[in-house]
Amino acid sequence: MKHRRISRALAAAAVGVALLAAPGQAHAPADGAGGVGDSYWPLDGNGGIDVQSYLIRDRYDFDTRRLEGSTVIRLRTTQELSSFSLDFLLPVKQVWVDGVRTPHSQSQRHELRITPAAGLPAGSLHRVLVHYAGKPDTERYAGERNWLANRHEVVTMNEPHMAPWWFPVNDHPSDKALVTMEITVPRGKQVVGNGRLDWRRSRGETTTWRWSAAEPMAPYLAFFAAGDFTIAKGSHDGLPWLVAVSRRLHPADQRASMKLMRRTPQVIDRLEDDLGPYPFSVTGGLTTSLQPGFALENQTRPIYPAVGAGAVWLVVHELAHQWFGDHVAVARWRDIWINEGFATFMEWRWEERTGGRTGAEILESAHAATPASSTFWSVTVGDPGPDNLFSGAVYDRGAMTLQALRNRVGDEVFWRLLRTWIAEQGGGNATSEEFEELAARISGQDLTGFFAAWLRTPAKPASTSANGLG
């Protein structure tokens, strides 16, 4: 679901669509593109559609690892279409568009092409129902096999791709939508998802859990976890929170993980001091017994591996993403530093505010300790490429960029810049260039050379005041 606060790049594309559909111009319906044009993954997302909401109804069998279900997608066309695509990996049984069974194909396994009998007018609303069944752990896309499960637990978490393993989707951050899920599992198992638990209902040997999120999200941020969990919940300053820890962990790890998860409301408080109000209606976290090798900022409820009670920095990072990455999402994957660099910088800020080193000290130390010959400096953070999307440089050099900017423009201007960024771009998508333009506007400075040195030059920035150093 696109919002008014969209990037200028996306706005320009929308204008192009509007021009194509101008009154009085005759043109034939077209096949919607099999991608939104992201240079990193050309098949991600799809042209011609803007999804408003997903209602996902999935059933998962732990013994066979089979997932079957149906998803209702409500979408608006952004051009006149003869066909359109969704991103999905499991075999599809049937597709219905506006109550009419509709031909479909999966010639490219990742692309589900749907061809209604009559063209779909530009700007029209439609209800698409897809039935499917398969084994997600056998599916692969873009070199990734992302299904994370064993006989006791399953968690749908990964980035940049996860949704196509469990529901048909317009899989690009530029198309945020509302997500509701009804997940059916064997009776006795629990399900945790984004947002709030609306209800759970048992019938025979199964229980269905319905979770719904009040705010639109990028598709990769939608998740469910099913298994055996200890759940704690409450409300802090009017903000409901729910955390969960897998009971499949060692008892000592369970205790440590729950202690860490319960820090969530406190961390939110501190982040709000710098960034303004938490952007969603609920918060929380989940610790899995599986071994993903990373944590992920799933909207309203990040997921963590078992890392011990002392890893507050990791909770800070994932909760900072609720502002930077979830509320303000990237318009293109090349802009990933405005997710990861910002979240890493907020780790530095946490250390500063809890009596540790200041952000300026961390920057100076990291810059001095990393020789110019290090491959760390060879990553172009403003366009790292798909192979370096989660390179350490994207995180750390991204954070260094922000602290250097803070040094250069001063504290008052810097924090006003971050709050303005959230206020202007919150709920939508943005680019690095838009952040750079805003920084120049708020500070009144020409920052072209500064951002070139930090984001676009594969070399160590010189220790100059112009670069926020020295």
Automatic annotation (TrEMBL):
Q: Which InterPro entries match?
A: Aminopeptidase_N-like_N, Aminopeptidase_N-like_N_sf, Peptidase_M1, Peptidase_M1_aminopeptidases, Peptidase_M1_dom, Peptidase_M4/M1_CTD_sf
Protein keywords: Hydrolase, Metal-binding, Metalloprotease, Protease, Signal, Zinc
The EC number on file is 3.4.11.2
Domain Aminopeptidase N-like N-terminal, by residue range, is 59-221
Occurrences of domain Peptidase M1 membrane alanine aminopeptidase (ranges):
314-454
> Which family is it part of?
Belongs to the peptidase M1 family.
GO BP terms in the entry: proteolysis
Cofactor(s) for this protein?
Zn(2+)
The catalysed reaction is:
Release of an N-terminal amino acid, Xaa-|-Yaa- from a peptide, amide or arylamide. Xaa is preferably Ala, but may be most amino acids including Pro (slow action). When a terminal hydrophobic residue is followed by a prolyl residue, the two may be released as an intact Xaa-Pro dipeptide
One term of GO molecular function: metallopeptidase activity
Pfam entry (one): Peptidase_M1_N
This chain belongs to the protein called Aminopeptidase N
Enzyme class at the top of the EC tree: hydrolase
Residues of the signal peptide: 1-28
